[in-house]
Write a structure and sequence with these properties.
heterotrimer, A mainly alpha (163), B alpha+beta (129), C alpha/beta (392), C: Quinone Oxidoreductase, Chain A, domain 1, 7-stranded mixed beta sheet
Chain lengths: 163, 129, 392
Amino acid sequence: MAFPPRPVDSTLHGVVDYMAGATLTTVFPRLAGIEGTRSARQIRTAGAAHATYSTMTDYPLGIVKAIPFKAHLALDAVGALALAATPFVTGQYRRGRSQWVPHVALGLFELASLAMTDPTGKGEFHGDIEAVREANQEDPHRKIYEGPPAVKRPVEVAALNSA
Amino acid sequence: MTRKAAITILGSPEEIKKRWGEAGYRPDYIDSADAGVTFKPAPGDRGTEIHVDLDKTAPGGKLGEMAMKLSGREPLAKVKDDLRRFKARVETGGIPRSEGSPEGELAERKLKQRPAQPLEKSELEKVGV
Amino acid sequence: MRANVWNGRNSVEVENVPDPTILNDRDAIVKISSTAICGSDLHLYDGYIPTMKKGDILGHEFMGEVVEKGKGVANLDIGDRVVVPFPIACGDCWACKHELYSVCENTNPNAGMAEKVFGHSSAGIFGYSHLTGGYAGGQAEYARVPFADVGPIKIEEDFSDEQVLFLSDIFPTGYFGADLCDIQGGETIAVFGAGPVGQFAIASAVLMGAERVIAIDQYDYRLQMALNKAGATDIVDFSKDPDIVEQLKELTGGRGPDAVIDAVGMEAAHGHGALHAAERVKQATRSESDRGHALRDAILACRPGGIVSVIGVYGGLLDKFPSGAFMNKGLQLRAGQCHVQKYLKPLYDHIRNGDIDPSFVVTHRMELGRAPDGFETFKHKQDECVKVVLKP
């Protein structure tokens, strides 16, 4: 594999997007023991935003294919950094580890997943259709729609043989 | 842990046993290992079965076994290599070679295949062609 | 020489590589005049088949002129024009003697690898991953052909390359798919997939005397080719109505087709909503390698007591196999990589008799250097692409 290995394709990235979005907006704050705090609201917002722009991304699991995949990855990166930075910007980090560690951990997780994601969003056509048409020594439309059938039915063959 | 391997070759037990002893056919690894080899007729028109039983345990216990598996030198894999080469020699007159595995079936080669493209002249000599 | 090599997922490149040389007495070297891109090459291209290595030469459908031969090849002469079958078979083992050439016991030098995945090894194949031996393929200027005294068929008549090239793989494979259906005359056969192999399965069913042959696909242009050229009598376009099973029942008076051919394989396109999404996720995480939509629908659609014939390529494991339908409807499931060597002569006879002109599938012909574009166009079904032939 090339370095760094990027085994995560756009479909798998989408899966993680939605799972992360769902987890962050629902149970994550409770599991991290920060339910009811400012952090919980911040993380929930981040999760909801992430899931929302995922539905609008042009990749296999997007619903409205508006945002190009590379732009989505850029948003992921910006969002990860923003989330990690939030506790330090607001000053809440002074209230204890639980008020900044989850943010930083989530940010790192997101950046790691980005490092492993293949940004070419494979699955799209990358050929040059005009070049192909020019290089093609055959006429596809004619082959499909013109001329006689290419196979004889046994009845026809028998008739030919007996004639 | 299976310590036995078997293969079936098209040919009568007498013919096969005779070939087993001949130079150019005699399997290297099975010879050097302390293995029990038996020949049995296979059912119907299928020829002869050869059964190989590796009695001795691998040196170094379980860890030694794993180390050998990872470097491709695990005894059972080498026994199977030998059996397949013997079968190919007897039935077809040679061993199958591909560009990925130009030496023919070799347990070590499975971990480090050549790319499936023709060999350079220098590689051909190394491979014994 | 130049050759089209695998360069990672979704990437092939035409590079300079060494010329092939004789490695065994029964080898021959063929100078390639025409070669093609196969639907199964797309599974390699899409990264679904393991054990590929950068630099592997692809291609298993090729023909050309014998330019060199080992001392063990008596039946061919230098200068002979030959078509080379894709499975490499020794002709001497029990399997070959029983005409099961694609499971030859002596031609995979990586048999140990294949055994781990499949339980046993099958025959070596040109240009199809190291699981099938790591043989260099035929999308190149020259190829080494092992067991040249067993495989290649000599072409003595004055046919164009494209009229005989497909004896290497897709015509025998389609024919084999139809052969497995035990057609006696008068049957209704459904063929899932109207790609090149599907087209030949349809044409073969017609040649064998099936009365109705139904082509199933989501691309109208392929269905039109099936109707106009391959002899299909009906079509099912599942991009318009995804319920294939119901449409097949309707077309057959509620009975279901007598036999169904799966010419689709592991990258089946269509699925019903949630099941398709789940399968795509499982494939992306590599927890399931094969998508089973075509096979599932084939089993559900086939009439009770019928035959499901599988020639679409599968590589690993697939979930949600309709075992209940399969067992309770008393179906036969028959499959295989085609034993090409068995069918070469009878099918060449069909071509010589004028019963079929296999060149009908070719929609694209271009110089070998354009292979990467050829792969992309073929993969994405652009420009009404059905079959791409490459000229070295």
